[in-house]
Amino acid sequence: MMSAAGKSGAMLEEDPDQTYENVLAEIQSFELPIEATLRSVYDDQPNAHKKFMEKLDACIRNHDKEIEKMCNFHHQGFVDAITELLKVRTDAEKLKVQVTDTNRRFQDAGKEVIVQTEDIIRCRIQQRNITTVVEKLQLCLPVLEMYSKLKEQMSTKRYYSALKTMEQLENVYFPRVSQYRFCQLMIENLPKLREDIKEISMSDLKDFLESIRKHSDKIGETAMKQAQQQKIFTVTLQKQNNVKFGKTVYINDRIPEERNEIVLKHAFEEEDENEEEVLTVQDLVDFSPVYQCLHIYSVLGDEETFENYYRKQRKKQARLVLQPQSNMHETVDGYRRYFTQIVGFFVVEDHILHVTQGLVTRAYTDELWNMALSKIIAVLRAHSSYCTDPDLVLELKNLIVIFADTLQGYGFPVNRLFDLLFEIRDQYNETLLKKWAGVFRDIFEEDNYSPIPIVSEEEYRAIISKFPFQDPDLEKQPFPKKLPMSQSVPHIYIQVKEFIYASLKFSESLHRSSTEIDDMLRKSTNLLLTRTLSSCLLNLIKKPHIGLTELVQIIINTTHLEQACKYLEDFITNITNISQETVHTTRLYGLSTFKDARHAAEGEIYTKLNQKIDEFVQLADYDWTMSEPDGRASGYLMDLINFLRSIFQVFTHLPTNSSDHAAMSGKVAQTACMSACQHLSTSLMQMLLDSELKQISMGAVQQFNLDVIQCELFASSEPVPGFQGDTLQLAFIDLRQLLDLFMVWDWSTYLADYGQPASKYLRVNPNTALTLLEKMKDTSKKNNIFAQFRKNDRDKQKLIETVVKQLRSLVNGMSQHT
């Protein structure tokens, strides 16, 4: 499309007049920009604007004519209108005055209304403001009330409720009034309150932990007491049931229970009394700080921190509780305090486990208990090793049983504690053995080692009621009479039974079968017999002040104690109700114990007899150079023989209640007699062959022969019955043949028959003969025996030298043969 200027130029070329008409039309239309139109008029042709101006003037004249026509047409109407307006002018002024007056009067009348209206407006504004304030206050009041409630809860230490109130404020109330400044202050204050609550609750928890640490022993003591009362009640009820079924039950393991109904009644009465006084852990400890702190940290979303802190602190307390005092082993109160604190600790943990969720788990308590149990066992094993008093060890065992039963009631495994009790049982037995060793020593020291005199039936019955002694022949004898054993025998028997009672006490409440208890009793009794009593007997036998008479009485005593062993086995059987015919029943080793003691006593008799013989032989005072004998035996030897006769009479008191005992007593007497004779013969032979004895006269030999004859007479007098023929005399055969050889001077026969079984001097050793012959040989001028031989018979001197040479040849031949 062409622009407006382009169009005007085209039109001027075609028809200038028409063109100007169009330009004027365009100017009058006011629709197109006039600048372009005018520019086209002036730019197209020279002097075109003049023509245009002419056209424009012509157009203006035409318009003026049209205006004039129009004015002429409306002039009369205009004149009439002016005339009417002038008429109205007067009325208008009147109206103006009236309106002004009316306005004045209206204004005057409206002033009061305006004032009242303003008052009404002001009141309406106030009313609207009040309504708005009331609405806002109604919106804020719950917030303020809740915040006031929060402050009250904080002041009354209801922190869990305070946290719940904070949650309501944040989630429900604060969003409604968040635009107010006080709300912002409150919102900013809530985190600080939460921290305060955490600190306060944690402080309360610390106080609680300190409190339960201090009260653990009281809690444990109460729990152990309740467990013990429950156990007593259960045991009493079980005993009554056993009696109903015809079983023999022992109270305190000694007296058959005949008053179970009374005991059970008393147990029920005690139970009823205790029911009113039973205290639980909640009664002793206020757990609210734990609950509150747990709830608070749960609400705050920091439950894990609380759990870790609680468990860490409790583990520290556990280590403190498990650390014993250094002198704990000295008294039972030290052990009791140790156990009560541990029980109190785990009772609290068990309570926390069951009343909270997640704070303490079963796995955590099991781990803590296993750690504690290992420590407890190590502590008890170490401290119990210092205990030397069996009563203290027994009380410790009872405490461990109550301790184990109490914790077992709370679900903690305690098998390792009962295993520990078996170790302590061995130690208990050791302390018992040491104690009874002292008891046995006291009994032996107080014994007079003489038969028990009985003057009345009452005394006799009193003794046999304590010791199982039976002798029909003795019972028939009139009073006064004597029991063969000494006073120590019934005392020993009673103390062995007391030991069994004491050993049995430890086996109580160990949850073991009767068979196991029976085995324990028999093994501990065997230790008492084979080790303690045996050692005491052997030490007694070896004491220097124990003489032959006492040793004989000891042999009698051990015989009766040996016979009483079967009654001890019956005694254990009655306690445990385990028959001795049971395959695995351990037998008592008392028989071997007392046999060994008896053999030791017998050996000591032989030793002391020999020592006494040596004492007499040391009194010998021979004149080895005498020319003629005194014609009677030496005094020391006669005293020795008299002593031996009196001693062997004592052996008639050895027990002969049965054929076995008679054989045993005869054998002891015979052995003692034979041993004494052999030792005497050896001592006399050694006296002749003593290297310090340089020479012996024939008179001394003849005097010595008189003493040997007295020994042979003693042997032939049967000092102890039971020897066959000349058996006892054979003890002196070596001396007899040697002395006969020198007295008869029968060297030709000796040398001729040497080595022959039927030799007259078979028991004479060439070395012995040579030694004695050299002592009799003339080796100095003081020797007058062989001087006479030289004077009277030089051939005999040569014979002696020949005998000496032959004897030396025999001795040398024996040495080479050896």
Automatic annotation (TrEMBL):
Belongs to the SEC15 family. Gene3D superfamilies: Dsl1p vesicle tethering complex, Tip20p subunit, domain D, Exocyst complex subunit Sec15 C-terminal domain, N-terminal subdomain. Keywords: Exocytosis, Transport. InterPro entries: EXOC6/Sec15, EXOC6/Sec15_C, EXOC6/Sec15_C_dom1, EXOC6_Sec15_N, EXOC6PINT-1/Sec15/Tip20_C_dom2. It comes from the Eukaryota. It holds the Pfam family EXOC6_Sec15_N. One of its GO terms (cellular component) is exocyst. One of its GO terms (biological process) is vesicle tethering involved in exocytosis. Residues 55-224 form the Exocyst complex component EXOC6/Sec15 N-terminal domain. This is Exocyst complex component. It comes from Bison bison bison. Residues 417-775 form the Exocyst complex subunit EXOC6/Sec15 C-terminal domain. The keyword Transport applies. Component of the exocyst complex involved in the docking of exocytic vesicles with fusion sites on the plasma membrane.
